[in-house]
Amino acid sequence: MYDLTIGLVGLLTTKGIKRWMSTLDLRAIYYDRNLDPIHCPEQPGIYLFWHENILFPLYLRGRCHLSMLLSRHRDADVLAVVARLSGFGAVRGSTGRGGREAVEQLIALSSSQHLTITPDGPRGPRREMAYGPIYLASRTGLPIIPLGFGYDRPWRFNSWDRFAVPRPFSRGRAVVGPPVRIPAGLERDDVEPYRLAVQQLLTDFTDEANTWAEDGTRRPGEEVVRAQFAAQFEAVAPKTPTRGRVASSQAA
């Protein structure tokens, strides 16, 4: 009975998200538009964004060869159904439950799937990034692509992440950042500078997207974005990253 209820709620939620989000004026700025999974870059990437803005990519980029990391907590069961119905793969696990198994699954998928993670989930603190994505990037050689999403004065839940629900027929904006290369074989003591740098990029791009959505001005290079399916791409072995600094966050 529980599974049936979760499935029904997930189905209705998926339909509601599609109908609701389709009313928005959605636009994006890219540091490199080929990093959008709709264009199927040759090498997969790890896409990161804050938990509060999950509706934006759920609506836009289903069936784009993306596998999403979700927790095993019961409050994520509906989200897992929504993700699958929206065209995402779902890997279940978090620091508290099933984390090791989830990481191994993500590593196994990394040669043929993009990976997407909300690095402050599943329970916060809000906009504080966990170490997992840095470790995963170091193990797989995949670049991290930081994403910032924002809406024009959204409604927000009274939850740990202040979950954002856009007003219908309002503006939604996305900033797709540059790829961030993490050196292979990082030791635990070397992870923190990269974690802090990527966390700052995520916050900066999110703030930029929110400001852009609120002021409604045109930005150089902006593009209207719609829900689309990606073409199939051929699986490739991830390339070994070169050692170096985290990419800069200068605006496009």
Biggest beta sheet attributes: 8 strands, mixed
Write the element-wise H/E pattern from the N-terminal end onward. Answer: HEEHEHEHEHEEEEHE
Strand order of the largest sheet: 4-3-5-2-6-9-1-10
Name given to the CATH homologous superfamily = Glycerol-3-phosphate (1)-acyltransferase
Count of distinct structural domains: 1
Work out the helicity level: 25-40%
Structural class by secondary-structure content: alpha/beta
Q: How many helical stretches?
A: 6
Q: Overall 3D geometry?
A: globular
State the low-pLDDT regions, or none: 233-252
Intertermini distance: 51 Å
Q: What fraction of residues sit in β-strands?
A: 15-25%
CATH structural fold name: Glycerol-3-phosphate (1)-acyltransferase
Radius of gyration over C-alpha positions, nearest whole angstrom:
17 Å
What is the class in the CATH system? Alpha Beta
- Name the average pLDDT: 89
Instruction: Give the tally of β-strands.
Output: 10
At CATH level 2, the architecture is 3-Layer(aba) Sandwich
Task: Give a verbal description of the structure.
The structure is a single chain. By secondary structure, this protein is an alpha/beta fold. It has one domain (2-224): Glycerol-3-phosphate (1)-acyltransferase (3-Layer(aba) Sandwich), CATH 3.40.1130.10. The chain contains six helices and ten strands, in the order H-E-E-H-E-H-E-H-E-H-E-E-E-E-H-E. It has an eight-stranded mixed beta sheet with strand order 4-3-5-2-6-9-1-10, sandwiched between helices. Strands 7-8 form a two-stranded antiparallel sheet. Helix 1 packs across helix 3 (77-85). The protein starts with a helix and ends in a 28-residue tail after the last strand.
